[in-house]
Amino acid sequence: PKLPGGGRRRRPPEGDVEVFGVDEQRDHPVELPRWVDLAHAALVDSGVRGDAELSLLFVTEPVMAELNKRYMDKEGPTDVLAFPIDDPIDSGRWPDSGSTGPDREPPELSELPMLLGDVVVCPSVAAQQAPTHAGSYDDELALLVVHGVLHVLGMDHAEPEDAARMQ
């Protein structure tokens, strides 16, 4: 099946779309179940089906600045980063496999969950930019969660046509 951004993934097996959320900061309140539910809804509304997993993390400004420098080569914290898993269609990832020692049979590809990737949000940056961007802190977090999910699914906003589709 094609993803919204045009990429292709193997057809996921039967199962549930799951979002795992973690709040690793205490600078601003985060209603974790609410944002996990929103990320899940964005995935399902975008056509993700079957046994698929996404991680949603809320981090501090220093952690986000480190990620932004390391992966984007940009200074300072940003509001959201998306890290899609770019495994080839036929390889998949087996999150519980540990080692591939002699006591393990290779996994059946049709039984593996489709690991989509990670969305990392910085609530502190969201709170700073909310008044001039989405309006409220909650609206800003909602925008960033959905924005990050769409990036993980392969959407981009570099070209006006793509930006309109993402909007």
Brief write-up:
The protein has about 170 residues and is of the alpha/beta class.
Which terms summarize this structure?
alpha/beta; 4-stranded mixed β-sheet; 167 residues
Task: Describe the secondary-structure layout.
Elements: E1 17-23, H1 32-45, E2 52-58, H2 61-72, E3 80-84, E4 114-121, H3 123-129, H4 137-152, H5 160-166
Parallel strand pairs: 1-2, 2-4
Antiparallel strand pairs: 3-4
Helix pairs in contact: 1-4, 3-4
Detailed description of the structure:
The chain is of the alpha/beta class. Helix content is 34%, strand content 16%. It has five helices and four strands; from the N terminus they run E-H-E-H-E-E-H-H-H. It has helices at 32-45, 61-72, 123-129, 137-152, 160-166; strands spanning 17-23, 52-58, 80-84, 114-121. Strands 1-2-4-3 form a four-stranded mixed sheet, sandwiched between helices. Helix 1 (32-45) links the parallel strand 1 (17-23) and strand 2 (52-58). Helix 3 (123-129) packs across helix 4 (137-152). It is globular, with a radius of gyration of 17 Å. It starts with 16 loop residues before the first strand and ends with a helix. Residues 88-95 have low confidence and may be disordered.
